[in-house]
Amino acid sequence: CAMSHLFGEMRQIGIVVRGVEAAIKHWVDVCGVGPWFYTEKLPVTSFGYSEQHFDGSHMSVALANSADVQLELIQQRRDTPSMDLDLLEAGHEGMQHWSSWPDDYDEKLQRALSNGYSIG
Questions:
Q1: What is the reported pLDDT for 61?
Q2: Where are the alpha helices (DSSP H) in 6-116?
């Protein structure tokens, strides 16, 4: 479904992978998606997860668009606690999140929180 009743149109899919370079190659060679914009070390200066703050997070990120949807490949390179690491430690790779890009972000956030969502 391309539309969420709470958040609006789906604009991005975040995909956690163990090897971002191999994932880029797959998306280009098999799926025909590219070009990819890649940063080996996303400049994150402060990171919060589960009400804790961490310094020194290291993740590699690649972005490409397929029509109106942005794909984000994410490889976590340190053992900093995160939703990404939780997914990997559970034995999975794949979609970890999707997002919309609403103009009324604060309103959408409050509606999501009042519907039982929480901030990770």
A1: 96
A2: 20-29, 83-89, 105-114
> pLDDT means per 10 residues in the chain (120 residues)?
70 96 97 96 80 81 95 91 89 92 90 86
User: What tokens does 114 get?
Assistant: 């009042």
In this prediction the pTM is: 0.84
Distance CA 20, CA 39 (A): 10
Measured CA angle at 71 (ends 67, 73), to 5 deg: 160
Amino acid 26 reads H
Strand partners, 64: 71
Q: Where are the beta strands (DSSP E) in 5-118?
A: 8-9, 12-16, 37-39, 47-49, 52-54, 59-66, 69-76, 94-99
